[in-house]
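Residues determine shape. We examine one folded chain.
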Amino acid sequence: MSRRLYECVPNYSEGRRKEVIDRIVAPFRSRPGVHLLDHLADADHNRLVVTLVGQAVPLQEALLESARAAISAIDLRVHQGAHPRIGAVDVIPFVPLRGVAMADAVSLARSFAERYACETCVPVYLYEEAALRPERRNLEAVRKGQFETLRREVSLPERAPDFGGPGLHPSAGATAIGARQFLIAFNINLDSADAGLARSIARTIRASSGGLPCVKAVGVALADRGLVQVSVNVTDYRVTSLHQVLQMVRAEAARAGARVVETEIYGLVPASALIQEAARDLQVAGFDEAQVLDLRLADLPDRNGECP
């Protein structure tokens, strides 16, 4: 029987201090049952994004060990960065990958959230498919006002955490834990120093403002580079492609006399998302992903324990 695997993409509010990043990532490097696929730190966002694949039990143990390292080293009272955040460990999403359904990911997220709050003393908000309140499905609603606002409003019934509390952890804030489908983090950088332009474009393209479906976006300044960024999450690339997002941002930027200088894919991306873009640009009629050699090789059966 194949192993039951989840993807997990914890985000931490640290993208500048290498020694802290190393301590946060260390628990994922050698634990059996957990595979560290990627980790990216961004100084402007002051954020670390880690991509893991693993089984439920070892994933939870590694996440707790990593969280303790982050909580001991990150103080949100002095933290500054372009990315919205409510916690030292900001979000922990579980994504069903192999041999598990979304219901399994929801169950895992909820049980882990309760344990996490108890063992770390950091309160938890459940979001997306794991949300216990419909108004908390969207992460942006949970993170409204960020750490600074949430610590003032946490005593309000509508902002009380799902586990832990009653207040926030004084330096580590809170953590959002959820279950969701695969997400592509797609950043688009513009040759402008006008952060207001990036925010305006983000507001235009995101689904919540009537823009592109399955798109979330914020505008941020990349001060060290003299650029601004439209930071996008595509929650279902089969509904809205990366190309559609890019074309809309290009058009909106052009209205203001700006242009796209580069894009970034932050973390991992399904091969099918990029193949879809390539087939469209090449105008390939009736293209099927089964025509991609590398994908066919990956699907070959393993016989007698030998790699094909």
DSSP finds nine helices and eleven strands in the chain. The radius of gyration is 20 Å. Residues 304-308 have pLDDT under 50 and may be disordered.
